[in-house]
Amino acid sequence: MQFSSSSVSRTPPTLATLVLLSGLSALSMNLYLPSLPFMATYFQTDYKVMQLSIALYLLVNAVLQILIGPIADKAGRRPVLLWGLALFLLATLGCIYAPNVETFLAFRMFQAVIVVGVVLSRAAVRDMYEQDQAASMLGYVTMGMAVVPMIGPAVGGLLEEAFGWKANFWLPFALAGLALLLTYSDFGETAAASGKTLLQQFREYPELLMSPRFWGYSLSSAFSSGAFFAYLGGAPFIGTEVFGMTAAEVGVYFGAPAIGYFFGNFISGRFSVRIGVNRMVLWGCWLNAIGVAVSAALFLAGLGTALSFFGLMTFVGLGNGMAIPNATAGSLSVRPHLAATASGLSGAIMLGGGAALSALAGALLTHETGAMPLLWLMLATAVLAIGSISVVIWRERQLGL
Predict the structure, then answer these.
(1) Domains in the chain, ordered, with CATH?
(2) Distance between CA atoms of 72 and 215, rounded to whole angstroms?
């Protein structure tokens, strides 16, 4: 099988294709989360072992993003996307037919190759638009993508109860097959091959790593999303073990941040060009922190409930929906000729931290502790996000930019 960057489509991808490519990664990450306690029973293992499927997936995502960016800057977006989708299909079949938890976790790590959709859909947008317009377009792309985590856990919980946990892997398999066909027919190449060797392409990394602006945008995105990744690792336990909810109930409540994320993305798409990247990131980081702080205050006052815990997570989603597209556009605009490399590196920073926070959240939670360790962890990352973007804004004022 050979995927050529020039075969079939010569026109840039449509918005629908970019949304599907981005959404597949989100779907693969969270569709099966309501099934985790039941999968632990199926594989006869502890919940904490099963929860590693999130952390390992995020960790491999982070490593792959470091590799995917330079490869796509060298070879083009299209062939890398097509190969990534094909490999994801094989990995998903491995998860479905895994005979034990070790095999499942191995194939779950291979599933992380679907991150090509996120990295290269972002890079394609930056290929086609300048910074503020790219932030606006990324807002619209991720607004469409936000529908997936909004309904994903709810659908996953219903599929679990109706057909068992394997249904939560058959659905991404079918959608990935559709995405492969759509990418082949619609995704025309958006960037010329760099002409450099892969080693030369990797040597471009120091140009990004030496940029304070790149680090400021990347860390603000990483810390802001860190609150959400900690939530991913801890919320299923909070729902099932602390509040005694069913898989379907956890699925419905779990999607609360995605509602906020959807509206945050809409605000980004509508106002980023007018307001500017930096202010959008700062306001988003503050909304993220406020939602977690109010939730923590309610639990400390003895007033915390399932409704308050999950409901206030909409502010986490709202803040991330404003912060992440704009911080991403900022990081990709530091060196426009390295858009895919920057997309991969900033994504790796975000997901590497997310993997650690997801695992830490799962390890901290017990019946005795309740929700507070998770809320403290989320609040700490939210405050660090505010600090990161504040440094970017301060430096630009000092430099008169």
Answers:
(1) 15-190+198-399 (1.20.1250.20)
(2) 22
